[in-house]
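INTERNAL AUDIT FORM
Audit reference: QA-55
Scope: verify that the stored structure record matches its stored sequence.
Auditor: D.O.
Record contents follow.
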Amino acid sequence: MNKNNPLSRKKEVAPLESAFQDLLKAYRLEAKFQEKSLIQAWPEIVGKTIADRTTSVFIKEKKLFVKLNSGPVKKELLMNKGKVVSLIENKFGKGVIEDLVCF
Protein backbone atom coordinates (compact mmCIF):
# COMPACT_ATOMS: atom_id res chain seq x y z
CA MET A 1 0.00 0.00 0.00
CA ASN A 2 1.27 3.45 -0.87
CA LYS A 3 1.27 5.55 2.33
CA ASN A 4 1.74 8.82 0.40
CA ASN A 5 -1.50 8.51 -1.55
CA PRO A 6 -4.62 8.00 0.60
CA LEU A 7 -6.65 7.16 -2.51
CA SER A 8 -4.48 4.21 -3.51
CA ARG A 9 -6.14 0.80 -3.49
CA LYS A 10 -5.44 -1.63 -0.70
CA LYS A 11 -4.76 -5.25 -1.53
CA GLU A 12 -6.01 -6.69 1.77
CA VAL A 13 -9.65 -7.02 2.78
CA ALA A 14 -10.87 -4.40 5.26
CA PRO A 15 -14.02 -4.25 7.38
CA LEU A 16 -16.68 -1.90 6.04
CA GLU A 17 -16.35 0.52 8.98
CA SER A 18 -12.60 0.79 8.45
CA ALA A 19 -13.03 1.31 4.72
CA PHE A 20 -15.66 3.99 5.35
CA GLN A 21 -13.36 5.81 7.81
CA ASP A 22 -10.52 5.66 5.28
CA LEU A 23 -12.81 7.12 2.63
CA LEU A 24 -13.89 9.98 4.91
CA LYS A 25 -10.26 10.67 5.74
CA ALA A 26 -9.17 10.59 2.09
CA TYR A 27 -11.80 13.14 1.09
CA ARG A 28 -11.38 15.17 4.31
CA LEU A 29 -15.02 14.72 5.30
CA GLU A 30 -14.58 13.43 8.87
CA ALA A 31 -15.57 16.71 10.55
CA LYS A 32 -18.64 17.20 8.36
CA PHE A 33 -19.72 13.60 8.95
CA GLN A 34 -19.38 14.03 12.73
CA GLU A 35 -21.42 17.25 12.58
CA LYS A 36 -24.23 15.55 10.64
CA SER A 37 -24.13 12.58 13.02
CA LEU A 38 -24.40 14.92 16.01
CA ILE A 39 -27.42 16.71 14.54
CA GLN A 40 -29.05 13.33 13.84
CA ALA A 41 -28.36 12.18 17.42
CA TRP A 42 -29.68 15.39 19.08
CA PRO A 43 -32.88 13.71 20.42
CA GLU A 44 -30.84 10.84 21.86
CA ILE A 45 -28.41 13.25 23.56
CA VAL A 46 -30.93 15.61 25.20
CA GLY A 47 -33.96 13.38 25.59
CA LYS A 48 -37.55 13.48 24.43
CA THR A 49 -38.67 16.61 26.34
CA ILE A 50 -36.07 18.93 24.83
CA ALA A 51 -36.11 17.21 21.44
CA ASP A 52 -39.90 17.74 21.15
CA ARG A 53 -39.43 21.46 21.76
CA THR A 54 -36.50 21.80 19.36
CA THR A 55 -37.42 23.33 16.00
CA SER A 56 -33.96 23.65 14.44
CA VAL A 57 -30.42 22.33 15.05
CA PHE A 58 -27.36 23.27 13.01
CA ILE A 59 -23.61 23.75 13.39
CA LYS A 60 -21.68 26.77 12.15
CA GLU A 61 -18.05 27.54 12.97
CA LYS A 62 -17.90 24.84 15.68
CA LYS A 63 -20.95 26.27 17.47
CA LEU A 64 -24.10 24.21 17.89
CA PHE A 65 -27.16 26.41 17.34
CA VAL A 66 -30.42 25.11 18.80
CA LYS A 67 -33.76 26.84 18.23
CA LEU A 68 -36.37 26.04 20.87
CA ASN A 69 -40.04 26.97 21.04
CA SER A 70 -40.21 26.96 24.86
CA GLY A 71 -38.70 29.66 27.08
CA PRO A 72 -38.37 27.49 30.21
CA VAL A 73 -36.71 24.66 28.26
CA LYS A 74 -34.33 27.16 26.66
CA LYS A 75 -33.37 28.52 30.09
CA GLU A 76 -32.90 24.98 31.45
CA LEU A 77 -30.70 24.04 28.50
CA LEU A 78 -28.57 27.17 28.91
CA MET A 79 -28.12 26.44 32.63
CA ASN A 80 -26.92 22.92 31.76
CA LYS A 81 -24.87 23.93 28.72
CA GLY A 82 -21.65 22.49 30.15
CA LYS A 83 -23.29 19.12 30.77
CA VAL A 84 -24.72 18.99 27.22
CA VAL A 85 -21.35 19.90 25.68
CA SER A 86 -19.73 17.21 27.86
CA LEU A 87 -22.27 14.59 26.67
CA ILE A 88 -21.53 15.54 23.06
CA GLU A 89 -17.77 15.31 23.65
CA ASN A 90 -18.17 11.87 25.24
CA LYS A 91 -20.18 10.59 22.29
CA PHE A 92 -18.37 12.29 19.36
CA GLY A 93 -15.01 13.35 20.77
CA LYS A 94 -13.53 16.74 21.53
CA GLY A 95 -13.47 19.41 18.88
CA VAL A 96 -16.74 18.67 17.09
CA ILE A 97 -18.31 21.69 18.79
CA GLU A 98 -16.90 24.31 21.13
CA ASP A 99 -20.07 26.10 22.22
CA LEU A 100 -23.85 25.74 22.44
CA VAL A 101 -26.11 28.64 21.45
CA CYS A 102 -29.84 28.55 22.19
CA PHE A 103 -32.24 30.92 20.49
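Auditor finding: record pair retrieved intact. The longest strand covers residues 54-60.
Action required: none
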